[in-house]
Amino acid sequence: AQYLKSDLLRQFDMQVNDFMDSLIEESTSLEPAPVPAVFSPPMSDKERSKLRYCSLLCYQGKLFVSRRSLLDELFEVNHIRTIYHMFIALLILFILSTLVVDFIDEGRLVLEFDLLVYAFGQFPLVVCTWICMFLSVLFIPYTLFYLWAQSHSGSHSHLRLYSLLFGTLFLLYQALGLGFLPTYTVVTNSFPPASCFIIILEQVRLMMKAHSFVRENVPRVLAWCKEKNDSVLTFPPDGFFLIYLYFLFAPTLIYRDKYPRYCVLYI
């Protein structure tokens, strides 16, 4: 069995080396991709005027536009595709060699998930903690901001006092509700590494989401207060809560009322 194992490993090494040599020879023989396939073509006059218009709106912050993914552009290059396929092939060979070696040594497939089970231990408590964090971020910052905006919409006096009050409540929520309580839960229950990372990373993400929501909408409320007689400018917009709910799941930390989305057709 030991001789068969060493002979099998030697054959695998020879096959991997031959495969790598053939891939390297193939990649060096490929012709370089034309420049227009990698870089974007020159802009037309219409696109230049649109770019100048967007630069005039730079004071509004980052502008999300539809564009191709960087990976899509890279995979148009033959060399990048070759390297990608090399990694896939090496991964498959590594999995096959590990399975064969385990079968030779143990006489069976060794599927040990003890480390995985330990790393994601106390998972029900992790899910409950995340649900509490998400629901608090969904309702508390939105409610505080909405009440603050309503206080500015009417003829209330002491607006600075209202701003100080709601701002203090929001900072206390950020520090205690999202900062202290999840950390206390992790430390008290001695979460394993993976479960601990889930709570901490979600804690940071939700804190940044809530901060971005307030930071991007406060100037809009102040501008709306100055132009309340303008019938075109309204705040909050229709479906404001649903927009905020979508923002909590969107893969971005910058709040906007809408984002460019591709139409996906499911057949």
TrEMBL record:
Which Gene Ontology molecular function entries are recorded, alphabetically? Answer: cholesterol binding; cholesterol O-acyltransferase activity; fatty-acyl-CoA binding
Organism, as annotated: Neolamprologus brichardi (Fairy cichlid)
- The membrane spanning regions, by residue number, are 83-104, 124-149, 161-181, 239-255
Where, subcellularly, is it found?
A: Endoplasmic reticulum membrane
Q: Name one GO biological process term.
A: cholesterol efflux
Q: Name one GO cellular component term.
A: endoplasmic reticulum membrane
Q: Which InterPro entries match?
A: Oat_ACAT_DAG_ARE
Chief subcellular location equals endoplasmic reticulum
Q: How does it sit in the membrane?
A: Multi-pass membrane protein
| Protein name per UniProt | Sterol O-acyltransferase 1
Keyword terms, alphabetized: Acyltransferase, Endoplasmic reticulum, Membrane, Transferase, Transmembrane, Transmembrane helix
